[in-house]
Amino acid sequence: xxxxxxxxxxxxxxxxxxxxxxxxxxxxxxxxxxxxxxxxxxxxxxxxxxxxxxxxxxxxxxxxxxxxxxxxxxxxxxxxxxxxxxxxxxxxxxxxxxxxxxxxxxxxxxxxxxxxxxxxxxxxxxxxxxxxxxxxxxxxxxxxxxxxxxxxxxxxxxxxxxxxxxxxxxxx
Length: 172
Ligand code: PRP
Ligand code: ADE
Hints:
Elements: E1 9-12, E2 20-23, H1 25-28, H2 31-42, E3 52-56, H3 59-71, E4 74-80, E5 88-95, E6 98-105, E7 114-122, H4 126-137, E8 141-150, H5 156-162, E9 167-171
Parallel strand pairs: 3-4, 3-7, 7-8, 8-9
Antiparallel strand pairs: 1-2, 4-6, 5-6
Adenine binds near residues 22 and 121.
């Protein structure tokens, strides 16, 4: 039987020379693969209270939307600077290849709400760390963070665990 990893393809030198880009669009396009990924991303949080699912731009929206639907909970996007229309709070962060700012609507999470963070890939952990800070600045409590892929050599999982986060990944 195929695993989640079998559906992911690697594209060399995208978006820059030297980056091996782990492309999950091939996983998303396959009905068995996509369902397997959503079920497995949710698996460790069964029985936990989750009030909101937060997805990180861009592929975290696809996963987060499906997960929120499965849980019958709300979905909240964390987006790159300048994309959200309402009042936002901002957090800068470093990427494997650059620097950026993430934003969250300032009324999207209520104090005390339990939040699951989802994204396709964990590299340095900078994007997710920024997301965690944004959620916590609004008083949200992170239940955990789920990713399809972890790139262990970039240290993201250790960074998030050192922040006290529960981290779940489907493959390396
Ligand atoms: C990728 C990926 C994660 C982030 C992980 O997104 O989808 O969100 O990088 O990297 P990090 O752990 O080093 O922070 P990217 O920044 O390429 O943006 P995109 O989803 O908008 O293409
Ligand atoms: N984001 C950061 N590094 C990445 C990689 N190697 N593949 C896909 N997305 C990424």
